[in-house]
Every structure is written in C-alpha cells, then in structure tokens.
C-alpha cells in the first residue's frame, strides 16, 4: 500500500526544482537586446565563439562562480558595421538549485558582453540568458534591425 504521507513529502520537496525547470524558457534575442539597452551597465553585441582557460571547468549547483576565457569573433554595430573583436572575458556562471548556465566553447553564438572599464564579462544564466548559440538567420536579422534602431519587438 502506498504511504500517502511519504508520497506527499517527496512531491512537495520536488516542487521547487520542477517549477524552475518548467519556467526555464530562454528569452528571445530581442528581449535580451532590450534588457541590455535599458541597463545602466554598458553592453556590446558580438558574434563568434568562446574558449575557456580551464577546459575542465564545471559549475557547482547552488553557487555563482567565475572563470576566465576569451572571445574571438566580431563586434556588431549599426547598419551592418562590424569589426574583428578578440578579448579576454570573465564568465559569471549562475546556478539556480541544480540548474547551471552552460558555456559551450568553440560554438558560434551571438551574445551581449558587459563592459566595465577595460574588462568584458559574460553573464551565463541557467536558462540561456543572453547566450544565443547557433544563431539562425532570423536571429542575426533581428539583432541587426535592433542595432539599426528599427522595429525590435519579439
């Protein structure tokens, strides 16, 4: 016979993780653009790939961790302008419960790097945040439209 009290206790214990998993829908690229644009912090839009100084880096659930690496690709500007961009970066990896943001070295992406003085930071959030790996043609067009000051609604 099923012990209903035990079943209830297990179910209640599992709810927060399940709720996080169900609500973990990554934002679209226009939402990320608007967030970066509205922020008091300074961001640049780039397309390229990351490398990690420590290829064995693994985020620890429940913690916010920092690790170093680099970005190589191009900075994206208005009216299709772009220039080569290669710079060291600091990854700020966040975890909620046991769900951590992921860094995929060597994978092409569009992202928003936060600039503080001469340093660049990558905010790596559990649900993708502003890391758009394998950007589609429509992602690239949407970012360019936002950069050009055009219609940037999602």
3D structure, described in words:
- This protein has a single domain, classed as OB fold (Dihydrolipoamide Acetyltransferase, E2P) (Beta Barrel), CATH 2.40.50.
- With 154 residues, the protein is α+β, with helices and mostly antiparallel strands.
- A hairpin with a 2-residue loop joins strand 4 (95-96) and strand 5.
- The protein has helices at residues 4-22, 29-38, 137-147; strands spanning 42-52, 65-76, 82-93, 95-96, 99-100, 109-116, 119-124, 131-133.
State the gist of this model.
The chain is α+β, with helices and mostly antiparallel strands and 154 residues long. It contains 3 helices and 8 strands; from the N terminus they run H-H-E-E-E-E-E-E-E-E-H.
Overview features:
154 residues, alpha+beta, OB fold (Dihydrolipoamide Acetyltransferase, E2P), 5-stranded mixed β-barrel, two-stranded antiparallel ribbon, 3 helices, globular, disordered N terminus
Going by helix content, strand content and strand pairing, the class is alpha+beta
CATH topology, which one? OB fold (Dihydrolipoamide Acetyltransferase, E2P)
Beta-strand residue fraction = 35-45%
Radius of gyration: 18 Å
Estimate percent helicity: 25-40%
The total count of helices amounts to: 3
The main pleated sheet reads as: 5 strands, mixed, barrel
Q: How widely separated are the two ends? A: 51 Å
Q: Which architecture does the CATH hierarchy give at level 2?
A: Beta Barrel
The best one-word shape is globular
Low-confidence stretches: 2-22
The total count of strands amounts to 8
Order of helices and strands: HHEEEEEEEEH
CATH C-level class: Mainly Beta
Oligomer: single chain
